[in-house]
Amino acid sequence: MSNHFTFPSANKIVTFVDILRKRASHQSEEIVYTFLLDGERESDWLTYQALDRQARSIAATLQSYQTMGERALLLYPPGLEFVAAFFGCLYAGVVAVPVYPPRRNQKNTRLEAIIADAGATIVLTTASLLTTIQEALPVVNRHCIATDDLPNDVASAWQEPTINSQSLAFLQYTSGSTGMPKGVMVSHGNLVHNSTLIYQLFEHNPQSRGVIWLPLYHDMGLIGGVLQPLYGGFPVTLMSPISFLKKPLRWLQAISRYQATTSGGPDFAYDLACRRISPEQLSSLDLSSWKVAFSGAEPIRAQTLERFANYFSPCGFRREAFYPCYGMAETTLIVSGGLKTEPPIVRPLKARELEKNRVVSATEEEESIRFIVGCGRSWLNQKIVIVDPESLTLCEPDQVGEIWVSGASVAQGYWQQPEQTKQTFHSYLADTGEGSFLRTGDLGFLQDGELFITGRLKDLIIIQGRNHYPQDIEITVEQSHPSLRPSSGAAFTIEFAEQEKLVIAHEVERSSLRKLNPSEVIGAIRRAIAEEHDLQVYAVLLLKIGGIPQTSSGKVQRRACRERFLAGSLDVVADWSANPRNTAKFRYLEAEVESLSSQLQTSKQQGSLPELEINRVGIK
Q: Coil, helix or strand for 535?
């Protein structure tokens, strides 16, 4: 029997260095992390004592370079080497910067921007990736350390750093609104407070067990999948996101095999499981242990929850296990959640009233209903208010407004962006002077204390649980081909088959119209977005000059562009869609592209399209 360590109250702040040191002392031989190499086979595991030893070895190496307070890039493939490196940074007082590693023969624009913004002086990685990183990132003239290749006796040289709750722990990078990524500054106090919040909301205990496939370099995977189990003193099984995406059955098989009590992901994960796991495979699953099936990071659809609960009920899954929640990197992770034992709260609202920012209940028999899933309430001294984004005053209870948050989980701001930090993290109510609050940019309302998310004030794009700023995608598009007009494009999403799909609309230079090769341009756009953002495009529209709606000051009106797309009123030169129900198509303005008109007509008569190979995933 282990002498299990129980934490003090949430009011007594400690760091994760303290937490791991005490776990290593009281639960030294207990396994905390297990990694499934292909989502099925155990390939590696860490006890608390082994993790503490590895963290001290990495920290001592970092301390030998006098790196206290410096930033260290964590460039790792999925696996436990990342976990050890993250704690190694905490043990050394070094600011960790988790980022997905570079890929061979691909652009690394975003990664290079993060390196420049963070001013990283150290790169931590594995021996197998060291050469790839040095070749892919020639701009990295820094200490590159393979943390899985350190001498065994280094740990004894470690010296405990002088850190406290205000010390910076890591930078969580998000896409920037102007094409530059932003590093959210997360302190040790933020980590402990948010971990305490999750522990209480999920009602974790030493008998809890987790299964996580989420990326460890993102907040949900890192805070929820790595730090929360260590905080709570219970084991977690980790797997690569690719293992899940290739075969979603692996996720539920792991829950069944390890009798997990906590697991989850964005809405798309539950939908994917329903679509990709066959009825014949259900008999192999036992989901009766699953107590907290958290859902967050993107809009939560009532239809998805209903379909998943019905489909997997024969496997022992209970509807009450669903745990819709709300959070973001700027709040470390979680903001709100409900009661573990209660099923999700779903409110039917009149859609047309909601479009006017009014909350009006509807009966299920009415037309134009929108079902909104509740995301719980605020806990542990955090506060949520709904604010009119223009007047900066509190909204009425039946009014949709911007969600503002205050509390000890709110991060310290954006790295080296004081003006953006002031605007986003330090807002005050105009009518009462209360503050400061974090402006989330999300829209919603409170009803009997329950938070409901209705949309986004900003044009943030969320696909498969990942946030993308449209400006970043638009820059990628305009740089993908010389025929595209600079600063004249819009990236937005539409809902198709209950999923968010990316649409690109961009103007073509007038000088390029006569010699335009649509397949070449659209192919370049799709490749660039796939390489730079790991996104698949649902539709691409090439427009005439002036086709993108803009304000008088020249700002792109993405919502207006989306409305015109749905109405079919955009001034299109050529377009393409990946909708498998329709043939991918091109349309040409004959008056401006006369040289292509006869070719198009001939191709239509032959039942094909010029210079294109079309299949369900689009242009090759």
A: coil
Annotate 98-158 with DSSP letters as a single string: EEPPP-TTS--HHHHHHHHHHT--EEEE-HHHHHHHHHH-TT--SEEEEGGG--TTGGGG-
Distances (CA, A) of 170 to 97, 152, 237, 433, 452: 6, 26, 23, 31, 30
16-246: what CATH class? alpha beta
Judge residue 131's burial from the number of C-beta atoms within 10 Å of its C-beta, 0-12 exposed, 13-18 middle, 19 or more buried. exposed
CA distance 211 to 234: 11
Question: In angstroms, rounded to a whole number, what is the distance separating the alpha carbons of residues 539 and 526?
Answer: 9
Q: List C-alpha distances in Å: 339 to 79, 201, 379.
A: 32, 7, 11
- At what angle are helices 302-312 and 267-276 packed, to 10 degrees? 40
d(CA 71, CA 347): 45
How many residues belong to the chain?
620
Contacts of 11 (CB under 8 A, 6+ apart): none
CA distance 168 to 185: 7
Q: How far is 246 from 363, CA to CA, in rounded Å?
A: 40
Q: What is the residue extent of each domain of the chain?
A: 16-246, 268-460, 469-619
d(CA 440, CA 427): 11
- Give the pLDDT band (50/70/90) at residue 206: very high
Classify domain 469-619 at the CATH class level.
alpha beta
Peptide bond into 64 cis (omega under 30): no
SS percent in the chain: helix, strand, coil, step 5? 35, 25, 40
Asked whether the predicted pLDDT for residue 3 surpasses 70, the reply is: no
The partner residues of 172 in beta bridges, in order of sequence, read 184
Q: Predicted confidence band at 554 (pLDDT cuts at 50, 70, 90)?
A: low
- 150-182 burial, b at 16+ Cβ within 10 Å, e below that, comes to beeebbeebeebebebebbbbbbbbbbbebbbb
CA distance 580 to 24: 54
Residue 454's closest CA among 359, 538, 390?
359
Within 10 A of 614 (CB to CB), how many other CB atoms are there?
A: 16
Q: Estimate the crossing angle of helix 470-478 against helix 518-533, to 10 degrees.
A: 140
**Fold: same for 268-460 and 469-619:** no
Question: Which is the CATH superfamily of the domain at 268-460?
Answer: ANL, N-terminal domain (3.40.50.12780)
| pLDDT band, residue 4 (cuts 50/70/90) | low
